[in-house]
Every structure is written in C-alpha cells, then in structure tokens.
Specification:
The complex is a heterodimer.
Chain A: E1 36-38, E2 44-50, E3 57-59, H1 60-63, E4 67-71, E5 79-82, E6 93-95, E7 100-102, E8 111-114, E9 117-118, E10 123-125, E11 128-132, E12 147-154, E13 159-178, E14 186-206, E15 212-220, E16 226-235, E17 246-248, E18 258-262, E19 270-273, E20 276-279, E21 289-290, E22 293-294, E23 297-301, E24 310-318, E25 327-335, E26 338-345, E27 350-357, E28 360-367, E29 376-384, E30 387-392, E31 395-401, E32 409-414, E33 418-426, E34 433-438, E35 444-445, E36 450-457, E37 464-469, E38 472-477, E39 482-486, E40 492-501, E41 507-518, E42 522-527, H2 529-532, H3 556-566, E43 573-578, H4 584-598, E44 604-608, H5 611-615, H6 633-646, E45 650-655, H7 669-683, E46 689-693, H8 694-698, H9 718-732, E47 745-749, E48 756-758, E49 774-776, E50 785-788, E51 802-806, E52 810-817, E53 831-839, E54 846-854, E55 861-865, H10 870-873, E56 880-885
Parallel strand pairs in A: 3-8, 35-41, 42-43, 42-44, 44-45, 45-46
Antiparallel strand pairs in A: 1-2, 2-14, 4-5, 4-16, 5-9, 6-12, 7-11, 8-10, 11-16, 12-15, 13-14, 13-15, 13-16, 17-33, 18-23, 19-20, 20-33, 21-22, 23-32, 24-29, 24-33, 25-26, 25-32, 26-27, 27-28, 29-30, 30-31, 34-36, 36-39, 37-38, 37-40, 40-41, 47-51, 48-50, 49-53, 50-56, 51-55, 52-54, 52-56, 53-54
Helix pairs in contact in A: 3-9, 4-6
Chain B: H1 4-7, H2 24-40, H3 47-64, H4 67-73, H5 76-86, H6 91-99, E1 103-111, E2 117-124, E3 130-138, E4 147-153
Antiparallel strand pairs in B: 1-2, 2-3, 3-4
Helix pairs in contact in B: 3-4
The chains are: A mainly beta, B alpha+beta.
Chain lengths: ~900, ~160
Amino acid sequence: MIKRIALGQRYLVKPCRRSTPARVLLGAVLLGLGTVANAVGVAQLTASITTPLPGSTFDLTAEGSADWTHWGLGGATSVNRKSGVMPQIGDLVQVGGAAGSWTKAPSTRMTWVWADGTPTASASTRTFLYQGDNTGKTASATYVGKGFQFSVPADTSERTLAVYLGGALSRGRLEVSLSDSSAPAISQTIENLTGPYDNRVEISYRAASAGQTLTLKYLQETVTGNIILGAATLQGAGGGAQLLPFSDDFSDGDLGGWLVVDQTNTSSDWAVIGGSLTQNVAIESTQSYDDSFHLGSYAYLGGGLGLMDYRFRVDAEYLAVGKADDIGVLFRYRDANNFYRLSINSRYGFTRLERRVNGVYSSLGTDSRGYRRNEVLRLEVEVRGPNIIVWRSGEPVFAVTDDSHVSGTIALYTQDRARFDNVRIDPPSSAPVIALSSPLSYLTSSAHSIRASAVTLNAPVDATVEFSLNGSNQTVDPAAPYVVDFGGLAGGNYEVVAILRDAVGREIARDVNPVVGLGGEYFVGIGDSITNGTGDFFPADNISTLGRIVGFQGYEGALTDLLDQTSPTPTNLVFNEGIGGDTSYQAALLRVDSIIRRHAGMDTALVQLGTNDALAQIPSGLGCTGTSCDGTFKQNMQALINRLVASAIEPVVALPPPTFNSTSPYTSRSNNRIREYIGVIENELTGIALGPDFFTFFMPSATVQYQSLFSDTLHPNGLGYRVMSYLWHNSLSPGAQRPLPFFLRNLTLSTSKLVQQNLLGPGNNYYIDENYTLTGIPATLTEGRWIMTANADRNEVAASYVTFDVDRNADLFVAYDANANSVPEWLSGFLDTGEMVGTSNPNAPSLRLYRMPLYVPNGTVRVSLGGNSGLTTRANSNYVAIVVERSE
Amino acid sequence: MLPSSSKGQNRISRSHDGSRFTRLTTWVWVGLLLLCVGVSGSETPEPRDEAQRLLQTYFNALQTGNVAVLREVLGGEFGDSQADLLQNPEYELELVQSYAGSDFDVIDVQILESGDVVATVDTWLDASEWIRNRLTLSRPSASQRLRIVHREVVP
C-alpha cells in the first residue's frame, strides 16, 4: 500500500541577499516555519523546505500533473519521466563529475512510486543519485562543489516545482533563480552533519515574461558525506504548455496557433494551401543580412514556448525557381532574439546550425551542401538538455552541446516561396542514439589529424563508444564525453565511424561521417554577387564530384573539382560567402568577422570586390595618404585583408571583371574606376597574394570583349563562371595550369543585338528576349555551348546572321522549328539527326536538330550562319545554334 | 488561415506611378488620408512627394559635392557606410568629377506598408553609361523625415 505524502510543516527560506539563512534541522518534523516570497511585479519565487516523516512515500504520478522525473533507477545515467507529455524538467547536469546511483537506501528514506512513466512504466523505489562519499568514512576536498543542476520552463504562469533531495553527514547549498532575474534568487543551505537527511523542496515561481527558465542547483559544501537527489515533479504548467505529441499536417486548412515574424522590411505571405503551410513571396534581398547571417520570415508555434526537451520533425520544400535561398527550422525559440536555427541554402550551398542569443547570431556548424531542386527535406531535431542533434533526411548532420537555450518552441523558416508539411513534436526518443559531433561529413582540413567526438542519447550504463577511420584504427572511449584523437594520418578522404556499444560490447547505434578530408585546403570565396554566382543558371557543375558542394551557382563547385584534379589528394573545398550588393566597405566592416568565425578551418580567402564600389563611385584611393584614404576602396580592402591576415588566413585577391553598363564599355567611367582599383590591388595592398585577372580576360582590348559570357551588364553567365573557375584554379596552382574551357571567340550578330554563349540545361531560358525554357535536351548536346539570340530575329534573312570562331574540332548543331515547312538554304548541308529539343514555346514546342562537323586541326575557323528566314520557312521561332567540343 | 493580426502585417501596397494604385485597400487608405488632410488642413506631405524631394536633394548634393547635405539625407547602414568618405577632404571634388554632366531618372517608387519607400533610379553618367540603383528610404522614427538607408545596384 502506498503511503501518502506526509509533510512536515513549512519553515522559512531566506533569499540569498539576506544574511542569515535558517538552519534546517533534519530528521524531524519541523514546526512553526513559513514561506518567503521574492517578488518583483508579477514575478514570484518562493521556496519551502519540509522534512518528510521517515519512510514517506511520494506518488510522482499524482503530484506531477505537468511532468515528473526520477533519477537513478537503472544506474547513474538512468532517467524515468512522465510519459505522454512534453518533458519540461530539463536534463540533469551532474556538476563536478558523474554521480553515483544508490540502491541500498533503508526503509526510513524516501520512497517514490509512479504508474505513468517511461521507459519504466511503473515502479516503487528508494533509489537515488548521490555525489560525494558513500562510505561515511572518507573526507575529500573533491566533494566540495559537486552536485546537481537542472532547469524548468518559466513564464508569467505560476508553477510549482517539488524536488526531493537531501544527503548524509554533509551540508548542501540550494540555489534557485529565474533566467530573467525578475525575482531575487534563493540560496539556502541544508545540512545534517551527523546522519542522513531527506527533504522535499517546494518552489512556487512565475517569471516576468515568456520564454524564461527556472534553474535549480544543489551543491555539496562539506568535505564529508554526500548529497542526494531523487525526483522532481512539476505542477500547474499553465501558460498553454503544449502537450505531446503534437502534430499538424495542415489538412484542416487552418493556421491557428502559428504566429508569423518577418525579420526584414519585406512582408511575408504565409497561408495554408493544398494541405501544406506555404510562404508565397520572396523575402531575400540585399537588406536581409545581419553581419553575414541571413534574415527571412518564420511561423512559430505559439503554444510551445514552454517546451524544453523534444524531438521535432517537418517536411520542407523550397519552391521558388529564381534564387535558391534559405529554408529551415527554428527550435527552442524563446523570442525573436533567442533561438536555434537550421538553415539550408543552394544559392551559397550550405547547411548551417546557428544560434541567436540576445540578438547576436553565431555559428555552431556549417557544411557546403544545399538542397537539390524539388528536394523534399525531412528536417528533424532532438533537443535534450544541452545536447542537440540535427538530422537531414535521416542523416545526422550536426551534433552539438550548447546550453544557450534550454527551452522554447519550434518555427518554420524561409527566405522565399516554400512549403512545409507534417509537423510533429514528440517527447524525446528512448532509443539509444549516437551522432558524430566532429569531424563533419564533407568538410576538409589542412591538418593530418582528426579529433573525433560524439554525442549520445539514452546511452545505457557503462556504454562505450568505438571510433574508427576507414574501417580501421578502432579506438574506444569508455566514458562520456566521447572524444578520440587520431594523429599522423596521411592526406586523403576518410570515413569516420562512431559505434555506441553497451556494457557487454554489443553495438546499439552508429553514425558514419563520410568524405572527411585531410591534407586539403579550405577556401572561402568572399565578395559580392559575382562570387555568389548571380547569373549562373546552369546548376550541373555546381555539385562537386565528391559531394562536398551542393549548390546551384557560382564558380566554387567547379573550382573544387579542378583543385581536386590537380592536387596530391582530392581534399579541397571552396565555400561560397559572396553577398550580393556588397562593396568593399560591407565586406570589410560588416561581414568578414562573422565569416571568419563561421569557418574556423579556413586556410585561404578568395577575395573579389570592386564592381559595386565602382558603380557607387567609391574613390579608389590610389596613391592616397592620410585622411584622403578615408572611406576609399583602398582603405576598406586593406581593412579586410588585415582581418584575414590576423586570423592566419591567406588572402588571394582577384582583379574584378569589367562592367558592361555602357555602349562603350572599354572607355566607360565605371571601367576606368575599376582600372584604378586594379592599380590599388596590384601595387598598394599589403599582405595579399594576387589572384586571377578577370578584367583582362573578359575585356582584353577595345575591340575584343566577352560580354557574350555575361548574363547581364554585371554578372557572368554559367559559361562565364566556368571560365572563372579555371582562371581561379590557374592562379592558385601555377604549377598545374589547365587550359581554359572551350568557348567561342568573336561571337556577333548581324542585328547588333546582344548575344550570349552559355551552358544550358532543362528549365533554362534559351533566348535573350523570351522566357521560354528548354524542356528536353538530347544527350548529344551535353556540355554544348548554346548561342542565345533574340527570338525577335526569327524572320532575319541575312546571309550571315550569327558569326563566331571555333578553335578546335567540334560539332555544330542547329535546332530549327520542327513544324516549319522547310529549312533555310544554308541549313540544307547539315545532317538531320532526327533528334528533337523540347521547349516551352507553344508556337514551336519541338526543335529539330541538325548537325555539321567542324574540323579545326590548327588555328581557328570562322563560322557564319544565315538568318532564320521564318517568313519563308514558316518557322515560328528563331533557331538555336549549339557547339559541342569533339574529342578525337 | 493566419491570425488576422499577423496576416495583416504581411501585405505590401505598391504603386508604380503617381496615379495608379494596385490594391483597393490602398485606395481606401488614400481616400481616408485625403479626407483627413482636407478636414484638418494638415500639410503632411504624401510619402511619394516627400521621397521625390529627398531624391532630388540627394542627387543635387552628389552633383555639387555637397557632403553636408549628404550627411543629412543618408541614414542607417548606408549612412554608416558613407561616414568615412564624407569626411575625406578629397571626396567633394571626387563627387563633382564623378557626376559632372550626369542625369537622374526616378523610374519607379513603391511605398511599403511599413512606411518605407523603395525607389528605382537610373543614373546616366553620360549619354552612353547608365547605372540602375534601388534606394530604400526610411524614417529613423515616426516623427522624422525620410532618409536614404540603403542603396543597391540593379543589373
């Protein structure tokens, strides 16, 4: 039969600011004591300590209406919790070292019973945790300061926390505080220096604002004896605490309970559409940054602010077809300035775990892998005390220990059109879990050693972790924290494995992190939208061969592969940190510090700036001294370089490309200013290595200019970025030069309209004046150089409409409207391949493909193609020419 | 659906020229604003007019190298980014040389619900060279005048 709680009467607990703490007389029912309330405004913090009658039993199920926890039943790391609710009593921190589990308590000590627990459904036990001496014979200074700590949520609702603790032959100090300090903290000693003592501490509390926590710490003060902790209960969660499990598949069409926060001056548009939560407008802009951290819009679950430990998952899909910006989730969201965030982006190519504390962002982890087009991301997070594990589509990507936020709700985050579905929040799992916290998959390092570490959840007593590299070098760490160092390793890519084993050595969980590079080089591209890759709509070369980079644009993926091809080991990585619109001022003074902190392993920075400075008429500072340098390109760039050098990072500075915002670009003011910047870079910046000369490449003379490799007046196109990757490579690897990729020279149109040569794929526009896209491309056109003309020229009859030079053997293809009655005379000498190019143009949905081989053993051949002659042939669209390099 | 309080904050009212508003709600608000002005006799400037005057002042200051005026009309991050330049003793001359003979064309003004104004402006440095900028105008506080707080190049 269960004995009901038999409490002694209450006695006074004084707050820490008061000078004379009451002494607790132990082992007897105390009389005549009361309660102290430390209250400021609506906040409240009171505690009463009672000594139960010997052998009292406490029913955790009955008392812990909101939550309860018992510690130690199955060993020192064993935790039993109330089932079916969102855990609110946070993970226990064993201060000063691991605690012991005491299973031999006599019947005079406290007994706890429950009938709604997990993983043990019901129990009656006197087992508790202890810190200090369990023999009653030894004294040690090491006992002092050991103890226990945990937190529970707090907001403006009143809650009651009951904690069962005590000790023997010792004195413990109890400290209780609210995270917002809205009520004075309590500090109180409890002692019995001659025998055992049990106490029930009942704390009533209420914070001044939402999203706060109450932290309880109980530490030993004596060199003798021990202190104990058995159980805790929580009542009156109030405040709309979310019961678990929670799920929302939005099938009811209702967004009730979700609240929206916009982080920029662009307003979002969240709605439930088609059974999913969607955000329907572009948020991202050049103003959506905080340092180098991104800002967007999110919808958070308002009822979950009191949540502490949980497992959360959602299906997320980025829908926008333009920029591939952020999508992700927030968790332990307390308010707009305090949360964790997982964000994934393919414009830059990253998956990042970040935190925001009191408005300040910082990085907890990053890799260079974004999402793929139409990929549905299963994002999953488990937060357990300070342990955070993040899964992306089933694979653990981050495992960190961080105690910045111990409670808070979840949110769905994006910077553009996106869809979320199947939100679910569960109590933490009870299954054993292991996740490598370092090294991360797909990263690289110039080092020749690895520090492998892992975070575990629900590890059984006496669990061990075995680490291995490429299936060998097995090394076991017998106790948490699980960390092993591997040294003297050869350069190359490693597969790091961590296996969680139980006390008898059976494997119960494992994590594998592949493609961990050693002896490589960790590059970061720093710059503006050109470093970021704006104008590159050909994603196929933005996923590096080994998978280190998954992005949609920029030179970084192709450069990573080139460096891998010419380095002793394929262990290079080029991150993309270019931010559109940035000038030298912004890069130097707003971005670089946070970029350096985000990339602790950065060896080399690939810096390219100047385009936006030139268009903003920022003086170069060429030859300046003193105050005449203030605010100039030179001053800003030197500030940027100095920050990098101070962090032992080598800056390699490229000469920026020209701009084509002029009908006379060779002599334009903008390009003359860029020439001054180049003078600064080449002659006046100190501490740099000189990078590639993009200016001369794209505009070598007054008569030869490669605007055809630009998607607009400022940004290269997909082929332009391909060329840039080679120019970067050849600058970084002077001993391993690679010939530039194939491109057409002297490409012109008789109509004097703009013309591009580009790499294209399905979904890309193929005219410069229409939004029609390619829907189907024969394999024979793989890696073809597409000549993008104006569809408005479809009736041109010139004998020489498009002209270009080819410097190698190639196949020239012409895709002509398949519904035309005939083809122009100049096309009659081509071979009809029978293949079709599909398009979204309803007037010409299929283009028939004709081929002409070009043999260019030496020098160059000038190719000239006639006009489309649409009026004669009844072709409804202009033809498209594609040149494919032929290797023979 | 979203709670009305949050959803109501998520709408942008755009106007692409001086006479055309795209949303009926915006018409209603403009009507109410005109009614209030008429009744009270207030001279509160219409945001677009205030923005146009600010932009004109800004471009005049660029052309004449008037850094004192630039200090007044710039704010926010953009103002911070220009602070060092505006104390550079050679910057006045640099501005005059850069913008001599230039022409400015405000081609679009959008008014956000937040009260911010976004203006798209073409700057013709000469007959052959142009730069398109998008400028964001914002008030440091509700009672203060608009300032230019952000500038970005539009390709």
